[in-house]
Amino acid sequence: MRLIDADQLKAHITSIAKQRGKKATTLCKLIDMQPEVPERDQVINKIADVLKTEGWHAWQGSIGSCNSSCEGDCSLCKKYFCEVVDELIYQLKNE
Description:
mainly alpha; single chain; 4 helices; rod-shaped
């Protein structure tokens, strides 16, 4: 699947149709009927939000308790977890 600029495609189709003395109304309507895809950054940000909440709780529950390096202060582990998520998101956005 490829993401395309639907407005640009419609303009191109309309231009070709005009050159041939025709209309592209029906085809443009079909393009408009297709579902829109959310912006990439919106999806990435939503994933980050979910990871930082549900992901943190799932990870914390899977290990049973924090490791000894944080001396029982779970906020330190959560801070580190969120920093890792932020780094992953940064990498995704800059691919």
